[in-house]
Design goal:
Length: about 800
Amino acid sequence: TLTPEREANHAADSPDRPIGFGRIQRKEDPRFVRGRGNYVDDIVLPGMLHGAILRSPLAHARLVSIDTSEALAHPKVVAVITGKDLEALNLAWAPTLSADVQAVLATDKVRFQGQEVAFVVAEDRYAARDALELIEVEYEALPPVIDARRALDPDAAVIRDELPGRTDNHIFDWEAGDAAETDAVFARADVVVDQEIIYPRVHPAPMETCGAVADFEPVEGKLTLYETSQAPHAHRTLFAMVAGIPEHKIRVVSPDIGGGFGNKVGIYPGYILAVVGSIVTGRPVKWVEDRSENLMSTSFARDYIMQGQIAATADGRILGLRTNVLADHGAFNATAQPTKYPAGFFHIFTGSYDLEAAHCKVTGVYTNKAPGGVAYACSFRVTEAVYLVERLVDMLAQRLDMDPAELRLKNFIQPEQFPYKNKTGWEYDSGNYEPALRKALDMVGYDELRVEQAEKRARGELMGIGISFFTETVGAGPRKHMDIVGLGMADGAELRIHPTGKAVVRISVQSQGQGHETTFAQIVAEELGIPPEDIDVVHGDTDQTPFGLGTYGSRSTPVSGGAVALVSRKIRDKARLIAAAMLETRPEDLEWEKGRWFVKGDPSAAKTMAEIAMGAHGTITLPDGVDGNLDAEVTYDPPNLTFPFGAYICVVDIDPGTARVKVRRFVAVDDCGTRINPMIIEGQLHGGLADGVGMALMEIIEFDDEGNCLGGSLMDYLIPTAMEVPTWESGHTVTPSPHHPIGAKGVGESATVGSPPAIVNAVVDALAPFNVAHMDMPCTPARVWAAMQGRATPP
Ligand code: MCN
Ligand code: CUN
């Protein structure tokens, strides 16, 4: 049987589908379902060579020597590049997105298992891989730093000893909120809950791994780089700065992308090596990593050890929150986030509650692990923040013997308090939390579930109900507060209406599966009344689109969506002047109705957008100050971020014999303001909820004491399938953003951010008979079993 959502989706392409916002089927899907997508690995250029990377087997070692002679003698090998070669080109180290540098190929030491050591370019992929085994590398092993808690010990090996004056593994200390005020609030609290909460290292594991095809044309000096990138424009600027190729001679193309989830924000050594390979050989070079390379060397996520404390009165009024975080950033600080915020937007850990004080401190450290840290639908670390506060609130409820829904309802920021300034510097744009939680409670049948749970407990069965309520902050800018390596976070849009009234809109953000070709056409359709199928959305090619910072932190709708609405309105205004000339009346006498301008009081005297477009390109005399054509462009600098929110409730059953957790039900009520395409929103949520089940129950990238990565394949790094997830039950409320041109807030990461605490809260709730107060993710059968035995989590 079909869920009501699926039934609605079947009707989505009915002839009376909306022109504008609404449930319409995705314009990009016909090419995907027919296998006609065009991914980086589909690109084949004449004379193209193939690159492969030799990676370090050791986590920490001095590089004594590299002998490439045998590899070079391989009949199909064209070039072998080492760190020494790059040093000569001044390319051995590249700047990261966090004011650090990262080795493109190791020169002095290797600093994590899987680090890039040499690059082979050969006639085919197999030969390149074979030749890797012919390279002789001599390493001198060094003690690895694996446990972040040991990274600052005086006797810990110094990982970044190549940096001048470095004597430890400390990267940064960052804090937000008021420490003294928070201490004072804690001092007068009746109850304080104090817990170490670990958000383990996980990996976004997109279906398509990372890759690039570099094509350097030596005569023109033009580089065309096809790459898996979430931010083609920012990448182009960085390539210009790193490689010294003038920016107008670089074209970055991100074709179809098979999932990004933050994994494709940064610039990896492989991209740079493909470029160097093409420059050195004079031929196009393709580099595509395999699954293990992706899991072991590209941007991981989380890895936060959080000591969290929540203070409240005896009757459940939450007073304050405070936390001290140890952040494991791996061997190079390559996290991607606005410059001002080394811990991303973690300081929204005050959540959805009206507090008297809050303080957080984050310390970043180097370890001998892959770099990264901001990925996997994290909203710049809101994931960690929401997990922390929602676990603490649940622990507080348990301590006070209060219902967790009741405790949340009692402490919510109230609707009249918006715009709400929280204690760590955010201004929440809008919110109305209680109706969302009440709706979720109704949908799940909360009271009946508690009755069922009590009955089951009496019979020795383990059933848990977990709630989480999250507030996100997505849509970075504005540019004055937010930049990435100095590039202000604003985005452009260009809209061109062709003479026949068909349109093309060019945007600076980059879809990796979010359906931008549909939703951005819908924004134009809503504003101008042109049917979405008549609007082509162009993205992912720096030669064809306006500058902008790209897709991550669910910023496409909040930022580029705003740009597209505004550029449409610019066209609408211009169309009014042209329509007035065509109708021989004054612009003030015209009224807009979706798709046409008509004379006030005489709706039959009208010009449609198509007629106006032809007029703009035709022979009529245009009014003064109106140039021909119907084109416009804008750059949108958002005044604030947007603050979507949601109420999630999860029901789990735990097998008392095997400790296996089964997610029986999951209700998600989301509020992302104005909804452009409900079907796409639901798709985003379903994906994110599956992520949540993965992180809560299965996924972790662990390391042994030597620094061997234990999550380097999908045999070891478990991700959920249809077998592990329930049929999602979703609902929504609508609280528009007051500052966004169409009132929309981002939604792409909401479910990944909001769902893990709901699931863990449910697991801990199910384990109440065993007096479990907290357990760390992933709640695997082994860990749940240990918790049931009253033992600490097993390794
Ligand atoms: N949308 C809507 N109405 C709203 C908000 C959004 O209809 N009020 C639509 C948008 O128009 C867009 C989609 O929902 O088609 C997601 O929009 P948005 O929230 O703006 O997020 P982005 O488009 O910026 O996508 C980025 C976000 C991030 S940061 C990660 S990580 C993630 C995610 O999207 N990666 C994804 N979802 C993903 N989905 C897929 N399939 N693949 C990924 O790599
Ligand atoms: Cu943090 S993952 Mo998304 O912002 O690309």
